[in-house]
Amino acid sequence: MPRESKAAKIQRAAEIEQVMYELYGEGACSLDYRDPFTLTCAVVLSAQCTDAAVNKVTPTLFDAYPTPQALAGAKLEDVEAVIRTLGFFRAKAKNLIALAQKLCLDFGGVVPQDVDALQTLPGVGRKTANCVMCEAFRDPQGIAVDTHVYRIAHRLKLAGPSADTPAKTEAALLAVYPRDQWLFINHQWVHFGREYCQARNPKCVECPVGQKGLCPSFSPA
C-alpha cells in the first residue's frame, strides 16, 4: 500500500466507521452491570478473561456486595470464593476490595467521572477507565484499547508499527477519529473482532470492511 496521507487516513477511518455502524450500530457492552460501580468491577474482572465468564459470577457478586460500602467491608476469602472460576481471582479479589475502600475514602463512595481519577483506583488502568467513561457516563475521554481494538487497528493500518503499546495505539486512533465516535469504537470493534477479524484465521473473504477496499491487510484467498 502506498504511503497514505493523514487526510486520506482520516477519510478511510470515516468509511470504516460507516461500515461498523451499519453492522453494529453504536454497539453494546458485553458485560452485565447495574451502575457505574458494578461496571467498574466487571471491567476489572474481565482482564485476561472472557466477558461470558465474568457474567457468570457477577450476579452473585453484585447481590452480595451491591455498593462500594458493602464491598469495602468484605472478607477477602469470601470475594475469592465468588470469583474463583476467573483467572487471577486472588489478585482480582484483593483489587476489588481495595478499589471499593478507596472509593469510600477518597470519593465519597461514588465512582469518579474522570479518566485520571479512575486510574487511581486499584486494578483500574487506562483501558478500564476509558470503558467506564464511555459506557457508564457517555463521556468519552479516550478509546479503550483491548486486544481486539489493538489487533484491528494494526490490521487496518490506522496504527503504524511504532504504535507498539495500547497507549500509542489509542493515540493513533484519537488522531483519526472525531470525539463523537470514541463512544462506539470499542464496542463495535470487539463485535467485529469476534465475528470477522479473529486473532487466528480472520474471515477476510466475508469481511465487509475488506470487501469495500478499506483494509490494507485484506486477503481474499
From TrEMBL:
Family: Belongs to the Nth/MutY family.
Organism whose genome encodes this protein: Muribaculaceae bacterium Z82
Catalytic activity: 2'-deoxyribonucleotide-(2'-deoxyribose 5'-phosphate)-2'-deoxyribonucleotide-DNA = a 3'-end 2'-deoxyribonucleotide-(2,3-dehydro-2,3-deoxyribose 5'-phosphate)-DNA + a 5'-end 5'-phospho-2'-deoxyribonucleoside-DNA + H(+)
An MF annotation (GO) of this entry: DNA N-glycosylase activity
UniProt-recorded name of the protein: Endonuclease III
SMART domains: ENDO3c (SM00478)
Cited InterPro entries: DNA_glycosylase, HhH-GPD_domain, HhH_base_excis_C, HhH_motif, Nth
Keyword DNA-binding recorded: yes
Function statement: DNA repair enzyme that has both DNA N-glycosylase activity and AP-lyase activity. The DNA N-glycosylase activity releases various damaged pyrimidines from DNA by cleaving the N-glycosidic bond, leaving an AP (apurinic/apyrimidinic) site. The AP-lyase activity cleaves the phosphodiester bond 3' to the AP site by a beta-elimination, leaving a 3'-terminal unsaturated sugar and a product with a terminal 5'-phosphate.
Cofactor: [4Fe-4S] cluster
EC class name: lyase
Keywords: 4Fe-4S, DNA damage, DNA repair, DNA-binding, Endonuclease, Glycosidase, Hydrolase, Iron, Iron-sulfur, Lyase, Metal-binding, Nuclease
